[in-house]
Design goal:
162 residues; mainly alpha; 9 helices; globular; Transposase_mutator; transposition; Mutator family transposase
Amino acid sequence: INTVYPEARIQLCIVHMVRNSLRFVSWKDYKAVTRDLKAIYQAPTEDAGQHALEAFASAWDNRYPQISRSWQTNWANLATFFAYPADIRKVIYTTNAIESLNSVIRHAIKKRKVFPTDEAVKKVVWLAIQAASQKWTMPLRDWRMAMSRFIIEFGDRLDGHF
């Protein structure tokens, strides 16, 4: 991604990270582990999140060392959203919208198997995106506030897109 888009900032999906972390947690530890994970990703700053991760590791590494190891390994791409104000964080902490769109595109491409030209692929992808955008009726929570912050943060990169 960074090769094609050198200014891109990658944010892994917090929801999926939490789900993967909880996959092997015993049901009796589930609430406590969930609470301690929440302290990491709801921290006000990256430093506070790092401290919460260290506290999590000291509390749970004896039972679930793979959880803190996974968060530490992926920290650079998990902590991206700490650089943004709360308005933007609410919108980018999960990648469900992107994953849904990718699923629609994959489905459209799989139907056809073979494309005569690169232009044909572009047209199928464009049509799939158009169809998905017409079906998308549920507004993103606090989108207007987030969009204002995106314009402040990335104004020059958003010119001509809105």
